[in-house]
Amino acid sequence: MKILVTGGAGFIGSAFVRTTLALDPASRIVNLDKLTYAGNLENLSLVEGNPQQRDRYRFVKGDICDASLLEKLLDEEQPDAIVHFAAESHVDRSIHAPTPVFDTNLRGTFTLLEAIRARPVKRFVHISTDEVYGSLPAPAEADEQYPLRTSSPYSAAKAGSDLLALSYFTTYKLPVLVTRASNNYGPYHFPEKLIPLMITNAFDNVPLPVYGDGRQIRDWLYVEDHCAGIRAVLNQGREGEIYNIGGNRSLENIEVVRRILEGAGRPESLIKYVTDRPGHDVRYAITSEKLERETGWAPLMSFEQGLEKTIQWYRDNQAWVARVKSGAYMQFYELNYSSRT
Ligand code: NAD
Ligand code: TYD
Question: Among 148, 183, 188, 297, whose Cα sits 20 to 30 Å from the Cα of 221?
């Protein structure tokens, strides 16, 4: 299968590229990525350096909002499927500066859908998030029919793009499938998100900024389990359907932070409670029973093992971290954290 991946230089997209090329020797991937602050070709150096993989891989730098580029690329490559990861993916950034979120997540998805309306593919998998269900009271778990109740510009734009994608199935019969995953973690994660930010701050012996009381709950999914779930949807999912992909592992943020400090060998005195995120969703929880029942997929990595592997990866890849954390990263860090502390 030839797959056009959007956003394949980011955290989850690059894991999908690496694992798909490694697991399926018949696969070929074209990666379209704008290389925003979150896109990093170093995440794909293992592919570029692998003689069994590099001939089945092509990188194209470009924007999913560029309709003529999409037309040209679809004509040239004629992919069987598109897996659409490209997005502005961080809630805090979406609060400080919503414009890029609406440009990429909504207009970009719309531009892509219009492109495949003219140049059909066999599958279009739209990658979304459990954040579209908003904050749930315990012990509720959202299934795919749960109402959408978004809180941040990020989640609102993702929910909008989900509905847009599904409307192209209903109206134009395009082969759209939507996945909604819980919080991912693992190697190559940009250190603006909770787990990599806390790991890298712990190694640097600088404060770990916990929003509010730290009692918010997220469900944690190891990124390779997420990629396996996406492949299950791509190969076995039903068109026009939504599939939740969860890790079955709900934890309070403060518990995650304590485990990171323990794993990194740093003291709990590094924890610093800071002003809460505006509109902060207290609890996310989903069930992926539908995906498990229809495809046999299940998350394989325990949180304990996944966190240990992730901490070890950051320990072993400090040059990657140093490059990612230089320059513009520190400007965002200042903007997001200076007024909080
Ligand atoms: P990321 O921020 O690490 O990567 C996003 C990638 O998209 C980057 O490589 C960036 O350069 C690229 N990109 C951004 N705008 C683009 C544009 N206009 N055109 C082309 N490329 C563009 O994000 P991620 O964490 O890997 O998330 C990938 C997808 O998964 C997103 O759609 C996100 O909403 C979804 N998701 C993320 C999580 C999570 O925990 N990170 C959970 C569920 C769903
Ligand atoms: P994040 O990784 O931004 O993912 P999301 O908000 O999309 O779930 O945040 C995960 C949780 O961690 C969320 O409840 C906010 C919290 N958090 C902090 O307490 N401190 C931080 O510095 C960050 C980035 C997040």
Answer: 148
Could you give the 3-state DSSP secondary structure of residue 230? helix
Looking at residue 56, what DSSP letter applies?
Answer: G
Per-residue pLDDT at 327 exceeds 90: no
Going by C-alpha positions, the residue among 272, 277, 230 that lies closest to residue 96 is: 277
Which tokens belong to 25? 């020797």
Dihedral, CA of residue 311, residue 317, residue 323 and residue 324, to nearest 10: -30
Is residue 37 among the annotated active site residues? Answer: no
The predicted model gives 55-63 an average pLDDT of 98
Across the range 72-79, mean pLDDT stands at 98
Q: Looking at domain 2-189+220-248+284-301, which of 3.40.1280.10, 3.20.20.150, 3.40.50.720, 1.20.120.1200 is its CATH number? A: 3.40.50.720
Full-model pTM:
0.98
Q: Is 336 in the pocket of ligand 2 (CB under 6 A)?
A: no
Counting beta carbons within 10 angstroms of the beta carbon of residue 267, is it exposed (0 to 12), middle (13 to 18) or buried (19 or more)?
exposed
Alpha carbons 71 and 332: distance in angstroms, whole number: 34
Annotated catalytic residue, options 57, 146, 154, 314: 154
Return the closest-CA partner of residue 137 out of 286, 283, 287, 288.
Answer: 283
Helix (H) or strand (E) holding 5: strand 2-6
Contact (CB, 8 A) for 18 and 10: no
- The answer, yes or no, to whether any atom of ligand 1 lies below 6 A from the CB of 134, is no
Q: Is 271 in the pocket of ligand 2 (CB under 6 A)?
A: no
pLDDT digit string (tens) for 195-208?
999 999 999 999 99
What is the rounded distance in angstroms from the CA atom of residue 288 to the CA atom of residue 244?
A: 5
